[in-house]
Amino acid sequence: MEDMTTRYIALLDGKRGAYGVAFPDLPGCTAMGRTMDEALRNAAEAVSEWAGIGRGPLPRARSLEALLQDPAVKDALLEGASLVVVPLIRDANRPAKANISLDAGLLEAIDDAARAHGLTRSAFLATAAREKIAGTRKEPA
Questions:
Q1: pTM for the model
Q2: Over the chain, what HEC string results?
């Protein structure tokens, strides 16, 4: 079975109001955002979209040690960029059932929140899990 999650190390740079993320191992894969959190959330979406375009096998994610030897990465870091880890969540394009146990009060709160967002329980939990894996969360509108 193919691993459905991979983590890529990316470069985050910019200033307040305009942040960018670039993936040294994924040519042309970039993301932007007004905040660092928004840029990272967009980066997680960008890497998933990049992987889903059908470019063939995904490039192997280099280790931190290997990336630090890359002259372009070294230059970006010297210019103020930071390294961040961005997960790639590859959809299997098939649903899978899971039997989970939760506190009854928590389940009730999940159902209430799902209804408030116009989502099913499954969609709400999937969205929450993706945000938690990516290390970001969307701020309420």
A1: 0.69
A2: CCCCEEEEEEEEEEECCEEEEECCCCCCCEEEECCHHHHHHHHHHHHHHHHHCCCCCCCCCCCHHHHCCCHHHHHHHHCCCEEEEEEEECCCCCCCCCCCCCCHHHHHHHHHHHHHCCCCHHHHHHHHHHHHHHCCCCCCC
Dist CA 94 CA 80 (whole Å): 41
In the chain, what are the domains? 1-93 (3.30.160.250), 95-141 (1.10.1220)
pLDDT in tens, 80-89: 999 999 988 7
Type of residue numbered 44: A
Q: Using CB atoms within 10 A of its CB, is residue 73 exposed (0-12), middle (13-18) or buried (19+)?
A: buried
